[in-house]
Structures are given as structure tokens and as C-alpha cells.
Amino acid sequence: QESRGLGDVYKRQVGAQGVPLRAGRSLAVDRRYIPLGSLLWLETTGPDREKIEKLVVAQDIGGAIKGAVRGDYFWGSGKDDVLDYAGRMNSAGRYFIMLPKKTETRN
């Protein structure tokens, strides 16, 4: 099965949430701090110093991702150029978890 985006050439990988990861929209997190499925606004820079400011979804975990302010941006998979690009990613950044202002309960 092929993914959409980034040239439509990457095989889909399934993350810890059980759904296919989407290049440029999936983030691996430490689920002790960020629940899988959470929406996050990500602000960082890519390996070539390009701005990345977008909505991403916490859909995966990783053994090296430890702590509340760690994440691994999913660039895609299957091509050497994407793997090289992802391997050069080591930028500081920040993210904001999106939560509803108020949750109503019904009796």
C-alpha cells in the first residue's frame, strides 16, 4: 500500500497507535507524557534550516524518546534521500498539545 504525499513512493509504516504513519504529520512521543492520538502544534526547523510549523498527531513511540519535551518527526520511509534527511534532523523546537477548553458531562 502506498502513502500519499512526498512523491507517493513510500511504503506505509504502522505506528504504535495502530494506524499508518503519515510523512510530515506523524510524531513519535514518550507516551508517559503525551497520549497517543493527541494533536500537537509543532514549531521547529528541518535539517536544511527550513521552518516547520504545522499540526501533527502523536501516533508512535520510540525507545530513544524519553521525556515530556522529546519527539521524533516522521519524514517518511523507503528511500535513501528521506532516510538521509531524517538522519540529519536534530533541531530544537517546541510543541503545544491541543486540548479542549472545557469538557461537558451529561447526567
| Unreliable residue stretches | 1-10
**Strand order, largest beta sheet:** 4-1-3-2-5
Largest beta sheet, briefly?
Answer: 5 strands, mixed
Q: In sequence order, what are the helices and strands, one letter per element?
A: EEEEHE
Mean pLDDT figure = 82
Q: Which percent range describes the beta-strand content?
A: 25-35%
Number of helices: 1
**How many runs of DSSP E, i.e. beta strands?**
5
The N- to C-terminal Cα distance equals 45 Å
Rg, rounded, reads 15 Å
Helix content: under 10%
Structural class: mainly beta
Per the principal axes of the C-alpha atoms, what is the gross shape?
globular
Supply database-style keywords.
disordered N terminus, 25% strand, 1 helix, five-stranded mixed beta sheet, mainly beta, single chain, 8% helix, 107 residues
Please, could you describe this protein's structure?
The protein has one helix at 80-88, and strands at residues 26-28, 39-45, 51-60, 72-73, 93-97. The model is unreliable at 1-10 (pLDDT under 50). By secondary structure, it is mainly beta. The protein is built from one helix and five strands. Strands 4-1-3-2-5 form a five-stranded mixed sheet, with no helix packed on it. Helices cover 8% and strands 25% of the residues. It is globular and about 55 Å long. The relative contact order is 0.25.
